[in-house]
Amino acid sequence: MITLALSKGRIFEETLPLLKAAGIEVLDNPETSRKLILATNSPEVQVVLVRASDVPTYVQYGGADLGVAGRDVLIEHGLDGMYQPLDLNIARCRMSVAVRDDFDYAAAIKQGSRIRVATKYTQIARQHFADKGVHVDLIKLYGSMELAPLTGLADAIVDLVSTGNTLKANHLVEVEKVMEISSRLVVNQAALKLKREPLRRMIDAFAAATTS
Fold it and tell me: Residue 173 phi/psi, 5° resolution?
């Protein structure tokens, strides 16, 4: 049995065509089913639904043989015990620095001010500002990042941006792009040795569907 870890939502939806290209169709709809382990049309493949941030953990420790996770999640988690064979080019967005539309970010940086930054992505933010030589105090939050500058908790946020509409609605502006984000396929290293043939077939099918 091969177990694939996916998170609900955009990644799940955008992985379905790749699975179909590999001849695999998920038989349950995660939006209407309460099941956390979903059967497929292949008796050898099942899908487990986990939080996006937990996908690398399941793959690393063998709870899943492979999974799909965003570049942001993988950088924060690290890649110990995992092989990352493919950028699937799905669930694309960007990681950006955003501030209140009345905050002069450029001036604060130029003056060498110490900036308070709220983010869920502390590893990425720390590295980004260290590379720029900017002094920051990082505040870890798990949601509603946009509130942090509005309430005075932070001067800036580092967060995922897709359309930018949420920032605009909350009077925030993007001032810097940190990196492009897309979702990648990750594979448990031990599983790749023990289940080499079936896993290699899936990886090759994903690769063909991604480049076609």
Answer: -130, 145
